[in-house]
Every structure is written in structure tokens, then in C-alpha cells.
Design a protein that fits this description.
Beta-lactamase
Length: 559
């Protein structure tokens, strides 16, 4: 959704809806104040009058010799950061801004009115103003997400699951992606708001609930830790007569048996769904009764697993098998969409705290153990390859969904029904491949300290380049031409400053390097790539245009 559309949606929101958001926001504010203030140590969270004045000046305009802030420009800044204007953490400010827009459709206010508008949600607003969110350049990151989405959209392979009749009716053309960072930055593409059943994606959340309620030691008295090496519904147990892991059917059935076993089935389901909704931050979580019935009618293998485990005395004492199975089928039939799935994944990425409400859902230990299981066992028989190639905790389901967790950064939910032979979404896997190809998100990418082939969306330019900038500024102040000419010296990967500027899409820097510093435009790195090659690889069209124009007007060969 573009900025204009999003602004208009805020303009149109009714006061009743805004007040509802305000009620939610007031509940979550106490949770979020500390988490937002403590996550970054680079800035104080105190907003003094000078900084309010700076923020006001940034969006100010002069009317009749008086300065007024444009609320529309201010709201555009919020949207461009990735924070939705309907975010409950902005509820108080959203209501006051709406009141001002009702008074003046141009949205011009003085500084005192502006101060009143932002005071209620000042912690989040100051993080946005200071570019202190986990993804500082959200606009650039969105481009990477869009490229990965479009690349995967072109795929036509895979087959929709047929063993459950309701699943077989899903359109193979559905393709949705949602992301939610640990600061609540959001981005959605495609069929992100179409509901679908969680199926096996429910396993990781159900497991996290059990760990949170019961402890890992207790849960793993009944279920193992290891990948089974067999298909997800294989009739097999480990050497201790336990299910191999909580991420396969037998293990998820066992975990279902552990949820509030002394309560009635309806109360057990209601309790777990409340935990799902907490993890989703109030986003859509529903239930598909038709799929539930269909699950029960086609559950011979799952019943066989349950009876086999009962025969091996694997269940806790007094387990009611029929209730356990019904609860398991209900969890598989729980509905979400990509938006709610992304928030669930982001809650795990954020150590169990929902990023859009600030509410603690799971303990950090429960999250750690859940992510460990997702990393080793979450992708059916593709789990080892996924850990090797993608290097992220994830859980897939036969509905075509994948929940992907990037710890301390974000959660992602992708959904497309066509599956490969292992039962994973074809488009979802392609999207994951594209993401880690361009971003430093693989679990062990941190070891590639000197490689510039990947982009780290969490990096702030000033954090990584302060020393370099200081040296350049000092050289310029002293007139040290020798030092300034070192801009074309490559690193040990053969990459020059022009390579890095091209990869980052920094058009002004590219112009400066080729026009003012006479940096060689065709210099190749150790992989044989020129800056133009890198610009094409990362789809930096403006950089491509600048370099092509320069190539057309001058001959510039490697030195």
C-alpha cells in the first residue's frame, strides 16, 4: 500500500474504530515503554524540547509568516519507516491526529498542538525519528522483499495437497508474504490477507505454549529432540519409545496430550487459542470447522500413531486419547493469514514478546528451545538442507505456509499452496533462497565479516563507517590528495568503494566516485564482477543508469 493510500485510510477511519485502537493501545503502552527504550543503547529515549523543535521543523511550512507542521508529511514519515498508522502503539496519537484533520483538512498545526499529539506515544515516535528501528532503511529492504516475491511468483511447479479434501480446493495461484520486525515494522505483499489453516505450522506454537507452561525438562520426558529421518507421519518412535521430535505428527500429538489434561476439551482448546492470539498480537486467528471435520475423517494414519504410542505406554498417565486427537485436529485446523503468521514468528524472534503489543507471550527459554527444534526439524525431510542453505529456524505446513524466524530481527510468513515432494511450499522455498542470497540472514553469515556480496538490512551507515568517514574528512581538511585517491583501492576481495556504493544503491556516491574521483568503472573483483554487474545483481536501476551513461560518454578501463 503506498503512502497516499495509507494516509487516506487513516483519514477515513471512524472515531469509534480509533477509540477501540486507543483502548488497546493504552493496555499495551505499559508493556512497550520499557522494551522500546531498552532495546537500543545508541540513543537516550528522553525527547527534550530542542528535539521536539527539530522534529517540528522537519515537517514545518510557513503560512502567513507563521510556522506549522504538516501532519500528512509527519504521517508519511511514520509509514515509510514500516510502522503502520493503525499500530496500537500509536493509538493515542492517531486519535489526536484524526481530531486535528477533522478541524483542518490540510493538517497544519502549531508546535504546542504537535507536542500534545505525540506525547502519548513518544517512545515509538522518537525511535522512528532517530532511525532507531531494527531495519533503519526500510524502503530499501522492501525492494529486496519485492524482488524475492516477484521471482517466486513466476514459479509454476508443485502440487496442492490432496489428502485432506478442503486443502485440495485451494487455488495454486495464491501467493502471499508478510514480514513483521521486532520493532513492529510491517510489509505485506500479494494474498497476505487470505485465511488458511496452519496445519503443521501450529506445531511450533503449540510446542512453545507447552514449554512455557510446563518446562522443557517435563515436556521432553514424553517427546524426543532429534529429526526422525523419516516422513512426518511415519509409524516409528525413538529408542526410548518416544516420538522423535515435537515437529512431526506423533510428537505434536504427544504435545497436545500435555496441554491442560485435567480440563474439558473445549477449555483446553480455548486456552491454547488465546495463546495463539497473544502471539499474533490480536491479528486474525480463526478456526475452519470444515477442515477439522475433514481432518478427522481422513486421520487413519494419525490414529495409528496414537494407538501405537499408547501401546508403547508413551503417553502421560490418564491421557484421554480421543480428546488428545480432537485437540490435535483442532490446532491443525486453526486459521491465520500471512499478517498474523508474521507477527507470531516475530514474537519468537523477539524472545517471546509480541512486537506490536509488547505483551510477554513466551519465556525466553521456551523460545530458545522452540527455535532449536524449528532449526533442526521444522521443514519435514528438507530440514537438513534448509538449515544448510537458508540457516534459519522455520516451520512449514501442507497448507503451503512457512513461518520463518530471524532471531532478534523479524518474523516472516509466506503462503502458497503448491508443494514440493517433501511437503514444503515451492514458492516459499524460492523466496527464502532469494532472501538469504541478498541479505546476511543465514545463521552463520556473521562469520563472513569481510564479504560484501550480501546486504545487512540491520546495519546503520554511521555505525559501520564512522572510522572511514573520519579519515576521509581529515584527509580532505588537510588537502591530502594521496589519501583521497585511495578511494579506488580494493579490499582483499577486489571490491572498490564503487562496488560497495553500487551494491548499496547509493546513487550520489556512485556519481561522486566516477565523476569527481575518477575511480575505475570497470574494475573487477575476485569473482569477475564490475560495479555495473553488482548493480544489476541487486537491481539498483538508478545506479545502472548512471554507470551506463558514464560508459557511453567515456572510456574507462581497469588500472
Amino acid at each position: 500500500m503506498d503512502t497516499v493510500t495509507r494516509l487516506s485510510s487513516v483519514d477515513k477511519v471512524g472515531k469509534t474504530h480509533a477509540k477501540l485502537i486507543l483502548e488497546i493501545g493504552s493496555d499495551v503502552g505499559r508493556f512497550h515503554l520499557e522494551s522500546l527504550g531498552s532495546r537500543s543503547q545508541s540513543h537516550t529515549t528522553v525527547l527534550d524540547n530542542d528535539e521536539i523543535q527539530q522534529l517540528f521543523n522537519k515537517f514545518a511550512t510557513v503560512v502567513n509568516e507563521k510556522r506549522f507542521l504538516s501532519l500528512r508529511k509527519f504521517m508519511a514519515m511514520i509509514s515509510e519507516s514500516g510502522i503502520l498508522l493503525e499500530d496500537p502503539r500509536l493509538a493515542e496519537s492517531a486519535l489526536k491526529i484524526e481530531e486535528q484533520l477533522d478541524k483542518d483538512e490540510n493538517g497544519l498545526i502549531d508546535i504546542e498542538t504537535f507536542r500534545k499529539c505525540i506525547t502519548g506515544n513518544i517512545v515509538l515516535i522518537i525511535k522512528i525519528w532517530r532511525d532507531d528501528l531494527i531495519i533503519p532503511n526500510f524502503k530499501e529492504f522492501k525492494t529486496i522483499i519485492e524482488n524475492g516475491y516477484n521471482k517466486a511468483k513466476e514459479l509454476k511447479g508443485g502440487k496442492v495437497a490432496t489428502y485432506i479434501p478442503q486443502l485440495s480446493r485451494a487455488s495454486p495461484d495464491y501467493w502471499g508474504v508478510s514480514i513483521c520486525t521486532i520493532d513492529g515494522q510491517r510489509y505485506n505483499l500479494g494474498d497476505y490477507d487470505v485465511p488458511f489453516c496452519m496445519q503443521s505450522c501450529s506445531k511450533c506454537i503449540s510446542y512453545a505454549v507447552a514449554l512455557n507452561d510446563l518446562s522443557s525438562d517435563f515436556v521432553h520426558q514424553f517427546v524426543g529432540y532429534e529429526p526422525s529421518g523419516a516422513v512426518f507421519n511415519e509409524l516409528t518412535l525413538n529408542e526410548q519409545d518416544q516420538p522423535h521430535s515435537p515437529m512431526i505428527n506423533s510428537g505434536a500429538i504427544m504435545v497436545a496430550a500435555l496441554h491442560k489434561p485435567d480440563q474439558h476439551l473445549s477449555d483446553r482448546f480455548e486456552y491454547i487459542i488465546k495463546q495463539f492470539k497473544k502471539a499474533a498480537g490480536g491479528e486474525y486467528v480463526g478456526f475452519d470447522n470444515a477442515t477439522y471435520i475433514s481432518e478427522k475423517e481422513t486421520a487413519d494414519r494419525n490414529y495409528a500413531l496414537a494407538y501405537y504410542m499408547r501401546e508403547k505406554k508413551a503417553f502421560p498417565p490418564n491421557t484421554v486419547l480421543e480428546d488428545t486427537m480432537n485437540l490435535y485436529f483442532q490446532l491443525c485446523s486453526t486459521e491465520i493469514d500471512c499478517c498474523s503468521g508474521a507477527v507470531m514468528a516475530a514474537t519468537l524472534a523477539n524472545g517471546g514478546i509480541c512486537p506490536i503489543t509488547g505483551e510477554k507471550t513466551f519465556s525466553p527459554i521456551a523460545v530458545r528451545d522452540t527455535l532449536s527444534q524449528m532449526f533442526s526439524c521444522g521443514m519435514y525431510n528438507y530440514s537438513g538442507q534448509f538449515a544448510f542453505k537458508i540457516g534459519l529456524p522455520a516451520k512449514s505446513g501442507v497448507s503451503g505456509a512457512i513461518l520463518i524466524v530471524i532471531p532478534n530481527v523479524m518474523g516472516i510468513c509466506v503462503w502458497s499452496p503448491p508443494l514440493d515432494k517433501q511437503g514444503n511450499s515451492v514458492r516459499g522455498l524460492e523466496f527464502c533462497n532469494s532472501l538469504v542470497e541478498h541479505c546476511r540472514f543465514h545463521r552463520f553469515d556473521s562469520l563472513l565479516k569481510h564479504s560484501q556480496t550480501k546486504f545487512d538490512p540491520t546495519n546503520r551507515f554511521n555505525d559501520d563507517n564512522t572510522g572511514t568517514l573520519t579519515a576521509i574528512q581529515y584527509a580532505a581538511s588537510c588537502g591530502d590528495l594521496t589519501a583521497l585517491r585511495r578511494l579506488d583501492i580494493p579490499d582483499y576481495d577486489g571490491r572498490t568503494a564503487l562496488h560497495l556504493a553500487a551494491i548499496g544503491g547509493h546513487v550520489a556516491a556512485v556519481r561522486f566516485l566516477v565523476e569527481k574521483c575518477d575511480v575505475p568503472i570497470n574494475y573487477t573483483d575476485r569473482w569477475g564482477n564490475t560495479p555495473l554487474d553488482d548493480a544489476k545483481k541487486f537491481n539498483r536501476q538508478q545506479v545502472i543508469d548512471v554507470l551506463n551513461k558514464f560508459l557511453d560518454s567515456a572510456s574507462n578501463f581497469p588500472r
